[in-house]
Design a protein that fits this description.
Length: about 300
Amino acid sequence: MSSLPPLTAVRAFEAVARHLSFTRAADELGMTQAAVSYQIKLLEERLGAPLFLRRPRQVALTELGARLAPEVSRAFDTLREAFAESRDRAEGTLSLTVVPTFASRWLAAHIGLFQLQRPDLAVRIDTAAHIVDFTREEFDAGIRATHKLAAGLMGEKLLKVEFTPMLHPRLVEEYEVREPADLLRVPQISLDDPWLPAWLHLAGVPDVELRQKAFVRLGTQQLEAAAAMAGRGVAMLTPPFYQDEIAAGRLVQPFATVGWEGHYYYFAYPESRRNWPKIKAFREWIVAATAPLRALEQT
């Protein structure tokens, strides 16, 4: 045969061969007895030989049917196991794509609390910086920083992406940082960071042209914060993420002014998945767990 027979006919054969009864097979498959008989007839015509001996009140396999039945049964067992494993994996694992800053500054320290609450649900986190297409990549949901979710996505706002200058306490004294304009004397860790001129303008400093020169682009707040804590310069950071460092004296937020350009960290997912149990469970947890972060928002 150039192709497989119809799956409906094969399912009917497997059920009749297992039960040796058209009636019980029909009940199992939710079909009429006549429909089951028709499917068996189609299969027999395709094979060119009978599969069952139909006797009064008894059904028996022919030699061909007896040879074929265990192979078909094993094939269906393999399919059932494969689909069961896939279902368990899909239901038992939550795969998240998370922007690096949120992942490193908050989620890594708190995800264990979710797993204590839901030990049946494993969580896989990827921190690639690119925007994931949920229709093409195997992620269930994600945490993104944006001003508006893309079409087809929905989600919850977790935190404003605020920004303000932070630096090591030693630099505050070394560069005599007393007012916003004094920050212009402090080395800037990422010279192409647009948040500093935006913040200076908000703080009332006249438009200034920051000197550009060769520099290292660190790429994430986590790395810029590490450089700031090492005393290398001023970094533009999101205040709620660095309260412990400020309390420990590793960083200083010298001014209360905080900038915000309309961006939020969202827990985002395709609209079609809003009722998935694992999405609902994580959504409820993370909205509640990030409430203390939102309480620290300043704008």
